[in-house]
Structures are given as C-alpha cells and as structure tokens.
Amino acid sequence: MHAEFVAVDWGTTHRRVFHVGAGGMVLAQRSDDRGVLAIGSGGGDFAGEIAALRAQTGDVPLLLAGMIGSTRGWTEVPYVAAPAGLAAIVGGIAHMPDNVFIVPGVMVDDDKRPDVMRGEEVQILGAHAMGKVPDGLVCLPGTHTKWAEISLGEIMRFRTVMTGDILAALKAGSILSDLLQNEPADDAVFLEGVDHALDMPDLNAELFSVRARVVTRRMTPADAASRISGLLIGADVRIGLGRERADVVTIIGAADLCQRFALALQRAGRESFCIDGDQAFLAGAVAIMAALAGAPR
Amino acid sequence: MHAEFVAVDWGTTHRRVFHVGAGGMVLAQRSDDRGVLAIGSGGGDFAGEIAALRAQTGDVPLLLAGMIGSTRGWTEVPYVAAPAGLAAIVGGIAHMPDNVFIVPGVMVDDDKRPDVMRGEEVQILGAHAMGKVPDGLVCLPGTHTKWAEISLGEIMRFRTVMTGDILAALKAGSILSDLLQNEPADDAVFLEGVDHALDMPDLNAELFSVRARVVTRRMTPADAASRISGLLIGADVRIGLGRERADVVTIIGAADLCQRFALALQRAGRESFCIDGDQAFLAGAVAIMAALAGAPR
What positions belong to coiled-coil segments (chains A, B) (predicted)? Predict the structure, then answer.
C-alpha cells in the first residue's frame, strides 16, 4: 500500500505529471514541455520546478523518473546494472530532502554492447505489475526504442535503436526534409518499406532511394514519408528481434506508434499486444511507492 | 580538341569554378558557397549568376554540371538512363542560349532499386579519360556516397548511400550532437567502428551505443566522433560492396575523405587507390567539351 503521491515521467523535452490518490486512482494528470533541457541542464532551477509542482499538488511524496536523474537533469543517480527487477531498482532510488525520490536508470554493463535507459524501467515494471508482461521480449517504441528481455519480472538485458531521433534529424535537415513534412498515411506503402528493411540491411541506401523514387516519378511525394517510416521501423524491428525466438512481443507506448510497430512485427511473423504507456508508467510508479513504503530505510 | 571554356560543378550548397585554357591547362579555379539553394530553387536569378561568372571569365563556353540541372536548379535536364558513357551523356546535354551547356544526370531506371546522380558522372568520365579507372567499382564518398560499376568506360549501374547527409543531420540535432562537435581523430577507434559495421547490420543501435559508452565511462567524449564516423563509413562500405567481388576499388574525392574510405575498404579486404575529385571533374569536363566540339548538332 502507499499514500497519496505525485509521479513525474521527466524526459529530455517533455514531462508527464500524475497525481495519484491513496487507492491508486489518478486525481489529476497533465503533460507539458518542461523537460530537463528546457529547465537547463545541470545548473537549472530544479528546486524551483519542484516547488511549483508542490504548489499545485500539495505536500505529498514526489517520485521522479527519467532524464531528471541523468547528468543533464537535476542530480545524477547511478544506473542499476541489469538484470534488475523491482527490488534492485527501488534499492537504487535516490532519497532527496523533502520526500523527493528519484528512480535510477538501468544499464547493460557489457563492454561489447553497453546500453542505458532512464524512465522506461518504470513502464516495464508497471506492465509486469499489471500482470501483462509474460517472460519474453518487450518493445517500447519512440525517440530511442528499447527492446528488453524480461524474465520473472526482471529486465535481463536490452538494446536501444535510435529510430525516432534519426527520423527527426532527417526531417530537420537532410535531402529528405521536404518529403518528411508529410505524415505517414498509407499503410501499404509503409509495409513495403517494412518488408524491405526486415529483409535487407541497406537502410542508408534505401533512404536515399526514396528521393530517387520521387525524382523519377515512381512515387508521389505524399507517399515518401510512409516508406521512410516503414524503412526505419522495419530496421528497428529487425535489430530488436535479433536472434530472439519470441513468438509474442509486448509493446508499451502511445497507441498510434504501438500500432505501427505491431504491423511491422506482424510482417516479421510475430504476434504482439499493446499496453498504453501512461497506464504502464502509473502502475510502475504505484508498485515502486508500495515497495518504498515497505522497504527498510 | 576544345577551345577555352569554363566548367562549373554546381552543387546544392557549393560551387566550384574552373577556367580552362585551350590546351586543357587550368587558368583559374575557385570555389564558393553559391550553390543552387543559395541562389533560390526554381525562381532564382541564375541568368544573373551566369552573367556574373562571364564578367570574370570572358565570353567563353560555359559547361555546367550538378544540381544546377535539377528541379532545384536553373532548369531541369532529364536524366540519361544507365548504362551511360561519354556519348550518351554528351547526347543528353541541354544546349542553352549564349553557349551555355548543362550536363544531364544519370539514373538507374529500375523499379526495385532506382537511383540518381548529378555531377558525379563528370568525375567518373574524367577518371576514365585519365586512364585511371579500370572496369570495376568506383566510390565517390561524400554527402551522398556513390558506388558505381564501370565497364568499358560506361556507368553500368550505381547505388547511393546517404552517409554524409545522415552524419550532418545527427550532428545538427540528435542525442549525438554534442559528441559530434569533436572531429574524428583516432584511427584505431575509427577502425573499431568500421569493423563492427562491416560485420553487423545494426547501425541505428550501435550509434546509440556510442552515447551509452560515454555515459558509462567506457569511452571518452573525444573518441565518440571517431567511432561514429567508423560506424557510418563501415556501413557505407558494406552496402557499397554488396555482392561485388571487385578486388580493387577506385575512390574519387577529397584526399581526407578518400583516405578514410581507403582504410575502411582495407578492413573489408579490398585494395583501393584515390583520384583527386577536382582533377577528375576537370578531366571529365575536358572530355565532354572535346566530344561536344566533334559532335553533330
């Protein structure tokens, strides 16, 4: 059990705030663009931000997750090494003054394939607490897509594919910029891109080929964004599945992005089901607060 | 033979101008940032730019190559379909008023793998005219690296890998931006990235892993740019070589970039030799002007 609290998923560019009642019910929820970069890396006035939050929510415990615990955030909370489950993650929480708790990230402590996450671990713990993550592979699509292997509720290892970040960079400034002003809209064209990328490891050539298709009138500019999305997500899924034999993949995130990954996974012969990212975060925050309440100090 | 002329390699962001004497000797050479985007796509004052060039060089024939012949340039000159050699490319030249000639680009007219180039065809023809391109594979590294198969001086087919464009986009805005403010400086770290990318088709995960290496203190921020360069160029070479059995690859371009690609090709078990890009362009322009002078109108 836990008392009333506020949980914040505090990312690089955005922040989601959940005010949770003692029974686990959400009293209020909002999101804004006060990510850590907006507040100012390192030297930013995070204490002022916390005070502003408290002014709205009252003097309740505050659970912070995400980039807020990174070198770019308020204070650096060391990563917990995988395998890591609820107990290890709660054990790594930084106890700050005034009932503020910062969740640690998780790292894969492997010289050949090191990796890090901050924030997604709460969603994974939450999906498990909801009874919705069987052992196997979990995918959290996004700016930095995470593919995590779960066993008995522990994050065994994971890998990041920077799909959304690369898409945004290509949109901001590249030969594909103007084509990416459109939104992906055609599932058939999207799936052709997925199929290609699942099969062929030549992404940086196929991306240019989208421009060539448009210039040689083989593709309309409107379809280009769908193919680019398909190529990037197809490559993401190919890398994420790796040598995994998982028949079923759990996808955690926003509905529209989950659906695109579900389509791509289907083409790769995998079943999948989707869990809402906010719900998973909330369930994870509740599980962490309950464990904190029961844990020895 | 040809009379005195001016050749311009007129790209998207830059322009290189060569004033060539009747014997093929360069009378003057300069480069500036008056690329087609600076002048204004489509509706830009290209006639004014031409007049400004002529004011400096005198009233001699003007040979223009590159993006100047694209939809973003002065006037669209249709691509010549590969296979294409000197005769086909000269046959596709647009004859404009006042002794201005615009070289067409070359396209791979293939629904499965369409591709386009504008400007590189002059360098390839030039390298061949210099007697320096045996049949086989030619690599022109850069913003959009070209890998072309040459047979008897004809461009048979080619493929583009958008390596430099993606690197610039990642540098301008991504999780890797701050790490890319450094220049690649360490060849050993560069080659580790090359080796990985030649072997493993997981580029968009390995790129994020560079950040993870830095965050977990496995790599210094100063080394990160070398590894990222190695990963991108290694992937470029892997895609460019494809199923090619070519033992020797001709690289055409600027010395520093050619050297990085030569190192990567060496790791892939290929010999290579480098041809300066300006010299190749110049030789190609001379060959085209000679053919134009001898060709029926």
Answer: none
Rounded to whole angstroms, what are the CA distances from A140 to A63, A137, A194, A258?
Answer: 21, 10, 18, 8
pLDDT greater than 60 at residue B96? yes
Res. B250: pLDDT tops 70: yes
SS3 of A97-150: the string is CCCEEECCCEEECCCCCCEEECCHHHHHHHHHHCCCCCCEEEEECCCCEEEEEE
Residue B143 lies in a domain: no
- Integer CA distances (angstroms), A158 to A231, B196, B221, in order: 22, 19, 23
Same domain, B87 and B176: no
> Tokens at residue B106, please?
């070359």
Q: How many domains does chain A have?
A: 2
Q: Are residues A14 and A124 in the same domain?
A: yes
The per-residue pLDDT for range B174-233, each reduced to its tens digit, is 999 999 999 999 999 999 999 999 999 999 999 999 999 999 999 999 999 999 999 999
- Domain with B105 in it: what CATH number? 3.30.420.300
pLDDT mean by block of 10 residues, chain A; 297 residues? 88 91 89 88 80 90 95 92 98 95 97 96 95 86 96 95 97 95 94 97 97 96 97 98 85 96 97 95 95 72
Asked if residue B138 is part of any domain, the answer here is: no
Cross-chain Cβ contact A114/B209 below 8 Å: yes
Residues B167 and B99 in one domain: no
ipTM for the assembly: 0.94
Does A192 lie in the same domain as A123?
Answer: no
| Residue at A139 is within a domain | no
A20 and A128, same domain (yes or no): yes
What is the chain B residue with the closest CA to A164?
B174
- Same domain? For B9 and B129 the reply is yes
Of A111, A144, A202, which has the smallest distance from its Cβ to B208's Cβ? A144
**Least CB–CB distance from B114: residue in A166, A209, A238:** A209
- What are the C-alpha distances in Å from B200 to residues A236, A239, A242, B146, B197? 14, 10, 11, 21, 5
Domain around B56: 5-133+278-294
Closest residue in B to A109 (Cα–Cα): B216
Q: Are B140 and B127 in contact (CB under 8 A)?
A: no
Q: Enumerate the β-bridge partners of residue A5.
A: A20
> Does residue B148 lie within any of the structural domains?
no
Helices B221-241, B255-267: crossing angle, 10 deg rounding: 70
Check whether residue A241 and residue A283 sit in a common domain: no
